[in-house]
Amino acid sequence: MTSLHSPDYEQLRVSDLHAFYGESHILHGIDLLVRRGELVTLLGRNGSGRSTTLRAIMNMVGRRTGSIVINGNETLGIAAHLIPRLGVGFCPEERGIFASLNVEENLLLPPMVRSGGMSLDEIYEMFPNLYERRFSQGTRLSGGEQQMLAMARILRTGANLLLLDEITEGLAPVIVQKLAEVLIKLKNKGLTIVLVEQNFRFAAPLADRHYLMDHGQIVEEIGAAELSSKQELLHRCLGV
Amino acid sequence: MTMLFGIPLSVLFGQLLLGLINGAFYALLSLGLAIIFGLLRIINFAHGAQYMLGAFAAVLGLNYLGVNYWVALVLAPLLVGALGMLIERGLLRRIAGEDHLYGLLLTFGLALIVEGSFVKLFGVSGLSYPMPEQLKGGYNLGFMFLPTYRAWVVVAALVVCLATWFMIERTRLGSYLRAGTENPRLMQAFGINVPLLITLTYGYGAALAAFAGVLAAPIYSVTPTMGANLLIVVFAVVVIGGMGSIMGAIVTGLAMGLIEGLTKVFYPEAANTVVFLVMVIVLLVRPAGLFGKEA
Predict the structure, then answer these.
(1) CATH, residue A77
(2) Does pLDDT of B65 surpass 70?
(3) Residue pairs between chains A and B whose CB atoms are closer than 8 Å
């Protein structure tokens, strides 16, 4: 099983992925590859198809064609609830904290998908605020705490491929800093992370590679080392 | 004889007890409707037919197979629950995500077909179910006579209602149900088999209705339309309590039974309309219902 642990192991391979919401054709042939332990970002403007790419991987959009291989399994034909069981944790853009559940119930909600997840104690150690508020209703938390909760929730499940959608959106700089620290810790644990991010300054120092998206296509793949030489392209596509 | 506002106390308590029993049935039935509406977003018009099927299962089981009351109390809900799961898998699933109206029309149509077939088979006059031996008789409480069976109905309904509430509000399975009610898509993305959860929920709701049907068999006439008559009031109870609210359904069910009982004592002419009057007032003051969270 050496291939499972080698850095070249393909955790996620998406090939020629097209996705549709009803009549609208959103993704036009996405190809991307994420190896074990990598942190990869999807950069792009609003509406460029980054969130849809994550949702398509989770089988949460309408129709899809092409191929999505997760941990060696083709997932295009399988039911949505079986995809997380391949070791995928999804943190949605709207955070998806359940109002009818308290913080601890929210944390315990997603079932374990594999062994090696963080225990409740470890999670509370990483996010002390959540421990203090564990019996509060989930949606009574501040935006930052809700984001922590949405992240913490998938760390318990043992998922080793995390799909994180806009986790810094609308949060105070001190919370964004905290999230960066968390991501570094998770990366050091060997987790594979796909990050959809608007905040380029947040993503740039963390990521191994970036995929630049526009109009439902990947227009460029940029390694961490090439960032400075591709500044002009980034300016043009992101408007930063 | 002791009087209160010109009414003999024994009459008052007698009507309150009858009201409490009706309330127990309202609570059981509206609870099932509330659970089903919460997760499936379907207004289950077949609920009355499922209640009637429970009562008929008890009668037919006794007459043809010699199944006694206590066995029927377990078996009839299982049978009707299984039938409910088949209906969900085969029919309701196909219209999931469509307008509420489709689910309403489909379940209403099913109820008409089932009730019509039973009228054809058994007539409209109704069958009777013998009181189980162990629950015959009653107690003289001094101020009134309490028939054992009626006390049993109230206790059994309350126990089942509270156990259901506990299961939904305090257990892991219940947290899946509550979360699934809010955001089924995300639940799938966590690896929870939401289609299965939906099937089980509909089955459980139908089973609750059948349980109420078996409880009703010895005291009400078992007729094909027994559920249809009751269901209208039960819908009013669900609306008053707040669509999809579990505790709301239980508390409102009991309260509406009692209010009906009181009305029978003080102003009998209004007894059949008082629940709807309450519904109108509640909708004017709190459109989401007494226990409803959002509009």
Answers:
(1) 3.40.50.300
(2) yes
(3) 60
